[in-house]
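Weekly modeling sync, notes
Attendees: S.R. (lead), two postdocs, one rotation student

Agenda item 3: backlog of single-chain predictions. S.R. asked that every request posted to the team notebook include the full sequence so nobody has to chase files. The rotation student volunteered to paste the first one in as an example of the format we agreed on. Action items at the bottom.

Example entry:
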Amino acid sequence: MPSSYFASRKESRHDFLVREVRELSPRLASHLPDVELVEEVHAASNYSYHIKEFTGKGYLCVGDSHRFIDPIFSFGVHVSFAEARMVSEAIARYLNGDGRDAVNPFAAYQRRSELGQGVVQSLIDAFWNRPLAFGFFVHVRYVEDCIDMFAGRIYEEEPSPGLVAMRKLLEKAPEDMSAFQSSLGKSLLCLQEGLKLLYLGATSFGIRYSDLEQAKAFAYDTRSWNVFFAKLAERYEKLAEEALDARQTQSAIAWLEDSVNYYYFSQVFLTGDQKAAYQACSRRAYAQLAPLLNPPCRRVMMPFMDTHLPGYLRVGKSGAPCVLLVGPGSDPTSKEVVLHRLAEVFLKRGMSVAYFDGPGTGRTDRYPADERR
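Predicted structure, as returned to the notebook:
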């Protein structure tokens, strides 16, 4: 019962309870016309309880019989089943003669039970007492660790970094928390501003806003962000293949353009082999897209001094001037994404366009001699 509601009635605990029972169920009240309480009415603000010694020779307790924690996250049934399984194993060992002479033959079960329920208690305490920091840990800082705890993986011998951080947070005095909350608030504001800039950049690459919103809900760090968009790119590539099989060329073009852009965007935060792999996937999708475009896109290798510059040529109207677009940096996939979008602007105005990696950038010098033609 909310304490504010009880206070608003301005009644004693006795009168409050008697009236509530009558108003709650008139039919029940008709069977109890004259209620006489056998003791005073008691109120409890926290009905959790904890029995610390709940095993010994000839007895042991399971679940709520030895500890009950605020059920907001509904761990009770999971804990009871987990402890029942542990107890069955402990009893089997005892019946087979293991620990018969021990002072407490079920001490190991008691220790492991306390280990798991202690994790639940820390989660609950952090949720109620440090809500802002709890949300930051769950959604940003320690997502994997929190998922493990909420999934019931609470009996690990070594506490996870997320659990350690929560417990350290709970140890802080209230006066220490004000500075922490202020710093956390500033970090969240910076994160929000960063997301705004990220959205602007993503939409300029053709990423759908709805996909960005979905990524924000499911991705919790840069790696999961990359994986999310790479999976979408793979899905769009498969949709393009299905459209081609059905001879739906325009749909295939649209899906392939999405695949090129999404593979490209998925590598933005990466380095090393995984970055190169996603870039290669983007170029592969573009190779499928190129002959479908209007006008078609032809791969060319432009001689330049002692090397060749890889690029693409799209011829517009006969006799129209040709615009040359040079890759903006070392990114070997920028011409398939950035320059492709820019090329469309000139093609719509009747011009031809050649776009390629500049000297010393992109994929220049990465092709064997027999491909340089």
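Discussion: group reviewed the output briefly. Residues 174-204 form the longest helix (31 residues).
Action items: rotation student to repeat for the remaining queue; S.R. to check formatting next week.
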